[in-house]
Amino acid sequence: MTSPTPIYDTLQRPFRDLRISVTDRCNFRCTYCMPAEVFGERFHFLPKSALLSFEEITRLTRIFLSFGARKVRLTGGEPLLRHEIEKLVAMLAALPGLDDLAMTTNGYLLPKKAAALRDAGLTRLTISLDSLDNDVFRRMNGGRANVEDVLTGIRAAEEAGFAPLKINTVVQRGVNDHTIVELARYFRQRGHIVRFIEYMDAGTLNAWRMEDVVPAKEIVARIDAEMPLEPLQPNYAGEVARRYRYRDGGGEIGIIASVTQPFCGGCTRLRLSAEGELYTCLFATQGTPLRDAMRAGADDGQLAEMIRTVWQARADRYSELRAQATPEQKRGKVEMYHIGG
Protein backbone atom coordinates (compact mmCIF):
# COMPACT_ATOMS: atom_id res chain seq x y z
CA MET A 1 0.00 0.00 0.00
CA THR A 2 1.29 3.47 -0.88
CA SER A 3 1.58 6.03 1.88
CA PRO A 4 -1.68 7.92 2.49
CA THR A 5 -2.03 11.53 1.42
CA PRO A 6 -3.30 13.52 4.43
CA ILE A 7 -6.01 16.11 3.80
CA TYR A 8 -6.93 19.07 6.01
CA ASP A 9 -10.06 21.21 6.23
CA THR A 10 -10.30 25.01 6.42
CA LEU A 11 -9.51 24.90 10.16
CA GLN A 12 -6.49 22.62 9.59
CA ARG A 13 -8.23 19.59 11.05
CA PRO A 14 -6.93 16.33 9.52
CA PHE A 15 -9.23 13.58 8.30
CA ARG A 16 -8.77 10.45 10.45
CA ASP A 17 -12.09 8.77 11.25
CA LEU A 18 -14.91 7.42 9.09
CA ARG A 19 -18.37 6.48 10.30
CA ILE A 20 -20.43 4.34 7.94
CA SER A 21 -24.18 3.91 8.37
CA VAL A 22 -25.21 0.60 6.82
CA THR A 23 -28.98 0.96 7.30
CA ASP A 24 -31.53 3.57 8.33
CA ARG A 25 -33.70 0.94 10.04
CA CYS A 26 -33.77 0.14 13.75
CA ASN A 27 -35.65 -2.30 15.95
CA PHE A 28 -35.79 0.25 18.81
CA ARG A 29 -37.63 3.57 18.91
CA CYS A 30 -35.44 5.62 21.23
CA THR A 31 -37.02 8.95 22.05
CA TYR A 32 -33.85 10.95 21.33
CA CYS A 33 -33.29 9.39 17.90
CA MET A 34 -36.30 7.63 16.32
CA PRO A 35 -39.38 8.53 18.39
CA ALA A 36 -42.23 6.07 17.86
CA GLU A 37 -44.76 8.80 17.12
CA VAL A 38 -42.77 9.69 13.99
CA PHE A 39 -41.33 6.30 13.02
CA GLY A 40 -44.48 4.22 13.11
CA GLU A 41 -45.35 1.04 11.22
CA ARG A 42 -46.09 2.99 8.03
CA PHE A 43 -42.84 4.97 7.99
CA HIS A 44 -41.03 4.51 4.69
CA PHE A 45 -37.40 3.54 5.14
CA LEU A 46 -34.92 3.32 2.28
CA PRO A 47 -35.50 0.49 -0.21
CA LYS A 48 -32.69 -2.05 -0.54
CA SER A 49 -31.77 -0.70 -3.97
CA ALA A 50 -30.99 2.71 -2.47
CA LEU A 51 -28.50 1.33 0.06
CA LEU A 52 -24.83 1.15 -0.74
CA SER A 53 -23.85 -2.43 -1.50
CA PHE A 54 -21.04 -4.05 0.50
CA GLU A 55 -18.84 -3.77 -2.59
CA GLU A 56 -19.59 -0.04 -2.90
CA ILE A 57 -18.88 0.55 0.78
CA THR A 58 -15.58 -1.32 0.52
CA ARG A 59 -14.57 0.58 -2.61
CA LEU A 60 -15.22 3.93 -0.96
CA THR A 61 -13.50 2.89 2.27
CA ARG A 62 -10.35 2.00 0.32
CA ILE A 63 -10.35 5.56 -1.06
CA PHE A 64 -10.93 7.05 2.40
CA LEU A 65 -7.96 5.09 3.70
CA SER A 66 -5.79 6.65 1.00
CA PHE A 67 -6.43 10.03 2.65
CA GLY A 68 -5.23 8.91 6.07
CA ALA A 69 -8.33 7.40 7.67
CA ARG A 70 -7.31 4.66 10.09
CA LYS A 71 -10.49 4.13 12.11
CA VAL A 72 -13.83 2.98 10.71
CA ARG A 73 -17.02 2.57 12.75
CA LEU A 74 -20.16 0.85 11.43
CA THR A 75 -23.41 2.42 12.62
CA GLY A 76 -27.06 2.76 11.62
CA GLY A 77 -29.89 2.77 12.41
CA GLU A 78 -29.10 -0.59 13.93
CA PRO A 79 -26.24 -2.12 11.92
CA LEU A 80 -27.04 -5.71 12.92
CA LEU A 81 -30.29 -5.42 10.96
CA ARG A 82 -28.27 -5.28 7.73
CA HIS A 83 -28.40 -8.79 6.27
CA GLU A 84 -25.10 -10.69 6.58
CA ILE A 85 -23.31 -7.67 8.05
CA GLU A 86 -20.42 -9.96 9.01
CA LYS A 87 -19.57 -10.25 5.30
CA LEU A 88 -19.04 -6.49 5.11
CA VAL A 89 -16.91 -6.65 8.27
CA ALA A 90 -14.67 -9.26 6.65
CA MET A 91 -14.35 -7.21 3.45
CA LEU A 92 -13.37 -4.07 5.37
CA ALA A 93 -11.06 -5.89 7.79
CA ALA A 94 -9.03 -7.11 4.81
CA LEU A 95 -8.26 -3.58 3.57
CA PRO A 96 -4.59 -2.58 4.00
CA GLY A 97 -4.07 0.34 6.36
CA LEU A 98 -7.23 -0.08 8.45
CA ASP A 99 -6.10 -0.14 12.09
CA ASP A 100 -9.42 -0.14 13.92
CA LEU A 101 -12.82 -1.49 12.81
CA ALA A 102 -15.59 -0.91 15.35
CA MET A 103 -19.38 -1.03 15.54
CA THR A 104 -22.05 0.71 17.60
CA THR A 105 -25.14 -1.44 18.26
CA ASN A 106 -28.08 -1.60 20.63
CA GLY A 107 -26.96 -5.15 21.42
CA TYR A 108 -30.30 -6.89 20.92
CA LEU A 109 -29.07 -9.16 18.11
CA LEU A 110 -25.58 -9.81 19.49
CA PRO A 111 -26.43 -13.31 20.79
CA LYS A 112 -26.83 -14.31 17.14
CA LYS A 113 -24.03 -12.18 15.71
CA ALA A 114 -21.20 -11.55 18.19
CA ALA A 115 -19.08 -14.60 17.37
CA ALA A 116 -19.47 -14.10 13.61
CA LEU A 117 -18.46 -10.45 13.90
CA ARG A 118 -15.36 -11.34 15.89
CA ASP A 119 -14.39 -14.08 13.45
CA ALA A 120 -14.86 -11.66 10.54
CA GLY A 121 -12.36 -9.19 12.01
CA LEU A 122 -14.36 -6.64 14.00
CA THR A 123 -11.97 -5.01 16.46
CA ARG A 124 -14.27 -3.33 19.00
CA LEU A 125 -17.91 -3.07 20.03
CA THR A 126 -19.83 -0.20 21.58
CA ILE A 127 -23.25 -1.07 22.99
CA SER A 128 -25.97 1.46 23.78
CA LEU A 129 -27.75 1.12 27.13
CA ASP A 130 -29.38 4.13 28.75
CA SER A 131 -30.39 2.66 32.11
CA LEU A 132 -30.42 -0.54 34.17
CA ASP A 133 -33.89 0.38 35.43
CA ASN A 134 -36.15 -1.62 33.13
CA ASP A 135 -39.08 0.81 33.29
CA VAL A 136 -36.81 3.73 32.43
CA PHE A 137 -35.09 1.79 29.67
CA ARG A 138 -38.35 0.70 28.05
CA ARG A 139 -39.68 4.23 28.19
CA MET A 140 -36.56 5.46 26.40
CA ASN A 141 -36.49 2.74 23.71
CA GLY A 142 -40.17 2.91 22.82
CA GLY A 143 -41.04 -0.31 24.65
CA ARG A 144 -39.08 -2.44 22.19
CA ALA A 145 -36.74 -4.29 24.57
CA ASN A 146 -35.89 -5.02 28.19
CA VAL A 147 -32.61 -4.38 29.96
CA GLU A 148 -31.99 -8.12 30.14
CA ASP A 149 -32.12 -8.34 26.33
CA VAL A 150 -29.17 -5.96 26.10
CA LEU A 151 -27.30 -7.58 29.00
CA THR A 152 -27.66 -10.91 27.19
CA GLY A 153 -26.09 -9.29 24.15
CA ILE A 154 -23.28 -7.91 26.28
CA ARG A 155 -22.57 -11.38 27.67
CA ALA A 156 -22.48 -12.75 24.12
CA ALA A 157 -19.97 -10.06 23.16
CA GLU A 158 -17.81 -10.94 26.17
CA GLU A 159 -17.90 -14.62 25.28
CA ALA A 160 -16.86 -13.78 21.71
CA GLY A 161 -13.77 -11.98 23.03
CA PHE A 162 -14.78 -8.33 22.86
CA ALA A 163 -13.26 -6.69 25.95
CA PRO A 164 -13.39 -4.15 27.28
CA LEU A 165 -16.68 -3.01 25.82
CA LYS A 166 -17.81 0.59 25.68
CA ILE A 167 -21.34 1.29 26.87
CA ASN A 168 -22.98 4.44 25.48
CA THR A 169 -25.54 6.15 27.72
CA VAL A 170 -27.47 9.25 26.63
CA VAL A 171 -28.36 11.25 29.74
CA GLN A 172 -31.62 13.20 29.88
CA ARG A 173 -32.68 15.24 32.89
CA GLY A 174 -35.77 13.88 34.57
CA VAL A 175 -35.69 10.74 32.46
CA ASN A 176 -32.68 8.57 33.35
CA ASP A 177 -30.21 10.86 35.14
CA HIS A 178 -31.16 9.36 38.51
CA THR A 179 -29.85 5.96 37.33
CA ILE A 180 -26.37 6.90 36.05
CA VAL A 181 -24.44 6.10 39.24
CA GLU A 182 -25.95 2.61 39.39
CA LEU A 183 -25.01 2.03 35.76
CA ALA A 184 -21.45 3.28 36.29
CA ARG A 185 -21.02 0.99 39.29
CA TYR A 186 -22.42 -2.06 37.48
CA PHE A 187 -20.08 -1.81 34.50
CA ARG A 188 -17.10 -0.79 36.61
CA GLN A 189 -17.41 -4.13 38.37
CA ARG A 190 -17.45 -5.90 35.00
CA GLY A 191 -14.45 -4.11 33.51
CA HIS A 192 -16.29 -2.13 30.82
CA ILE A 193 -16.18 1.60 30.08
CA VAL A 194 -19.38 3.64 30.24
CA ARG A 195 -19.46 6.78 28.11
CA PHE A 196 -22.10 9.21 29.29
CA ILE A 197 -23.37 11.41 26.45
CA GLU A 198 -25.01 14.79 26.89
CA TYR A 199 -28.45 14.82 25.27
CA MET A 200 -27.86 16.51 21.90
CA ASP A 201 -30.00 18.37 19.38
CA ALA A 202 -29.11 15.91 16.63
CA GLY A 203 -31.68 15.94 13.87
CA THR A 204 -35.01 17.73 14.24
CA LEU A 205 -37.40 15.11 15.63
CA ASN A 206 -36.50 14.63 19.28
CA ALA A 207 -38.01 17.84 20.74
CA TRP A 208 -34.62 18.78 22.20
CA ARG A 209 -34.49 21.49 24.88
CA MET A 210 -31.44 22.84 26.66
CA GLU A 211 -33.11 22.34 30.02
CA ASP A 212 -33.17 18.56 29.36
CA VAL A 213 -29.36 18.46 29.15
CA VAL A 214 -27.44 17.22 32.20
CA PRO A 215 -24.06 18.99 31.85
CA ALA A 216 -20.89 16.92 31.87
CA LYS A 217 -19.69 18.59 35.07
CA GLU A 218 -22.83 17.47 36.86
CA ILE A 219 -22.54 13.90 35.57
CA VAL A 220 -18.94 13.70 36.78
CA ALA A 221 -19.85 15.24 40.15
CA ARG A 222 -22.64 12.74 40.78
CA ILE A 223 -20.40 9.74 40.07
CA ASP A 224 -17.41 11.26 41.87
CA ALA A 225 -19.50 11.68 45.03
CA GLU A 226 -20.03 7.91 45.15
CA MET A 227 -16.85 6.63 43.46
CA PRO A 228 -14.08 9.28 43.41
CA LEU A 229 -12.71 10.15 39.96
CA GLU A 230 -9.68 11.90 38.51
CA PRO A 231 -9.16 13.10 34.92
CA LEU A 232 -7.08 11.15 32.41
CA GLN A 233 -5.22 12.30 29.32
CA PRO A 234 -6.80 11.50 25.92
CA ASN A 235 -5.77 8.25 24.27
CA TYR A 236 -5.12 10.11 21.01
CA ALA A 237 -5.49 13.55 19.43
CA GLY A 238 -9.11 14.31 18.57
CA GLU A 239 -10.66 11.85 21.04
CA VAL A 240 -14.19 13.12 21.69
CA ALA A 241 -14.70 11.54 25.12
CA ARG A 242 -13.15 13.19 28.17
CA ARG A 243 -11.74 10.37 30.25
CA TYR A 244 -11.89 9.92 34.04
CA ARG A 245 -10.31 7.17 36.11
CA TYR A 246 -11.61 5.84 39.40
CA ARG A 247 -9.07 6.96 42.00
CA ASP A 248 -8.74 3.46 43.41
CA GLY A 249 -7.62 2.21 39.99
CA GLY A 250 -10.77 0.29 39.22
CA GLY A 251 -11.47 1.32 35.64
CA GLU A 252 -12.67 4.49 33.92
CA ILE A 253 -15.61 6.35 32.39
CA GLY A 254 -15.89 8.77 29.49
CA ILE A 255 -17.99 11.91 29.01
CA ILE A 256 -19.08 13.15 25.59
CA ALA A 257 -20.03 16.78 26.17
CA SER A 258 -20.96 18.08 22.75
CA VAL A 259 -23.34 20.65 24.23
CA THR A 260 -21.50 22.20 27.18
CA GLN A 261 -17.87 21.46 26.25
CA PRO A 262 -17.76 21.32 22.42
CA PHE A 263 -14.85 19.55 20.77
CA CYS A 264 -15.31 20.80 17.21
CA GLY A 265 -11.73 22.06 17.10
CA GLY A 266 -10.38 18.53 17.21
CA CYS A 267 -13.03 16.77 15.11
CA THR A 268 -11.49 14.48 12.48
CA ARG A 269 -14.65 12.64 11.31
CA LEU A 270 -16.52 12.11 8.08
CA ARG A 271 -19.87 10.31 7.95
CA LEU A 272 -21.21 8.17 5.11
CA SER A 273 -24.96 7.58 5.13
CA ALA A 274 -26.58 4.29 4.18
CA GLU A 275 -27.47 5.59 0.71
CA GLY A 276 -24.02 7.03 0.05
CA GLU A 277 -24.31 10.67 1.09
CA LEU A 278 -21.12 12.11 2.59
CA TYR A 279 -21.60 14.40 5.62
CA THR A 280 -18.94 16.50 7.33
CA CYS A 281 -20.74 16.87 10.68
CA LEU A 282 -23.34 15.12 12.84
CA PHE A 283 -25.33 18.36 12.62
CA ALA A 284 -24.87 18.92 8.86
CA THR A 285 -27.74 20.16 6.73
CA GLN A 286 -26.71 18.58 3.43
CA GLY A 287 -24.50 15.82 2.06
CA THR A 288 -22.56 14.98 -1.09
CA PRO A 289 -23.98 12.06 -3.15
CA LEU A 290 -21.10 9.63 -3.68
CA ARG A 291 -23.42 6.73 -4.58
CA ASP A 292 -24.93 8.58 -7.52
CA ALA A 293 -21.47 9.43 -8.86
CA MET A 294 -20.34 5.80 -8.48
CA ARG A 295 -23.39 4.39 -10.22
CA ALA A 296 -23.01 6.96 -12.99
CA GLY A 297 -19.56 5.53 -13.73
CA ALA A 298 -17.14 7.70 -11.76
CA ASP A 299 -13.72 6.09 -11.41
CA ASP A 300 -11.71 5.98 -8.18
CA GLY A 301 -9.80 9.13 -9.09
CA GLN A 302 -13.00 11.10 -9.58
CA LEU A 303 -14.48 9.81 -6.32
CA ALA A 304 -11.24 10.68 -4.51
CA GLU A 305 -11.40 14.20 -5.87
CA MET A 306 -15.00 14.59 -4.64
CA ILE A 307 -13.96 13.45 -1.15
CA ARG A 308 -10.90 15.71 -1.13
CA THR A 309 -12.97 18.72 -2.22
CA VAL A 310 -15.60 18.09 0.48
CA TRP A 311 -13.06 17.79 3.30
CA GLN A 312 -10.89 20.71 2.20
CA ALA A 313 -13.97 22.98 2.14
CA ARG A 314 -15.15 21.78 5.57
CA ALA A 315 -15.69 24.52 8.16
CA ASP A 316 -18.26 22.88 10.49
CA ARG A 317 -18.37 24.09 14.09
CA TYR A 318 -22.05 23.63 14.94
CA SER A 319 -21.60 22.72 18.61
CA GLU A 320 -19.33 25.71 19.22
CA LEU A 321 -21.78 28.01 17.45
CA ARG A 322 -25.05 26.38 18.61
CA ALA A 323 -26.29 29.55 20.29
CA GLN A 324 -25.90 31.50 17.04
CA ALA A 325 -27.44 28.84 14.78
CA THR A 326 -30.16 30.19 12.49
CA PRO A 327 -33.67 28.67 12.46
CA GLU A 328 -32.86 27.27 9.00
CA GLN A 329 -29.75 25.52 10.32
CA LYS A 330 -31.72 24.05 13.22
CA ARG A 331 -34.59 22.89 11.01
CA GLY A 332 -32.49 21.40 8.23
CA LYS A 333 -30.14 19.08 10.17
CA VAL A 334 -29.77 15.50 8.97
CA GLU A 335 -31.46 12.99 11.30
CA MET A 336 -29.15 11.00 13.59
CA TYR A 337 -30.64 7.59 12.64
CA HIS A 338 -29.61 8.41 9.07
CA ILE A 339 -25.87 8.81 9.68
CA GLY A 340 -25.22 7.26 13.08
CA GLY A 341 -24.32 9.00 16.33
Give a short synopsis of this structure.
It is built from 11 helices and 12 strands. The protein has helices at about 55-65, 85-95, 110-120, 135-140, 145-160, 180-190, 215-225, 290-295, 300-310, 325-330, 335-340; strands at about 15-20, 70-75, 100-105, 125-130, 165-170, 195-200, 230, 240-245, 250-255, 270, 275-280, 290. Strands 7-8-9-6-5-4-3-2-1-10-11-12 form a 12-stranded mixed β-sheet.
Describe it:
With 341 residues, this protein is of the alpha/beta class. The chain has a single domain (17-339), classed as Aldolase class I (TIM Barrel), CATH 3.20.20.70. 30% of the residues lie in helices and 16% in strands. The protein is built from eleven helices and twelve strands. It has helices at residues 54-66, 85-93, 110-120, 134-140, 147-160, 180-189, 216-226, 290-295, 300-312, 327-331, 336-339, and strands at 17-21, 71-75, 100-105, 124-128, 166-171, 193-198, 229-231, 242-246, 252-256, 269-272, 277-279, 288-289. The protein has a twelve-stranded mixed sheet.
Keywords:
341 residues; alpha/beta; TIM Barrel; 12-stranded mixed beta sheet; globular
Task: Please describe the topology of this protein.
Layout: E1 17-21, H1 54-66, E2 71-75, H2 85-93, E3 100-105, H3 110-120, E4 124-128, H4 134-140, H5 147-160, E5 166-171, H6 180-189, E6 193-198, H7 216-226, E7 229-231, E8 242-246, E9 252-256, E10 269-272, E11 277-279, E12 288-289, H8 290-295, H9 300-312, H10 327-331, H11 336-339
Parallel strand pairs: 1-2, 1-10, 2-3, 3-4, 4-5, 5-6, 6-9
Antiparallel strand pairs: 7-8, 8-9, 10-11, 11-12
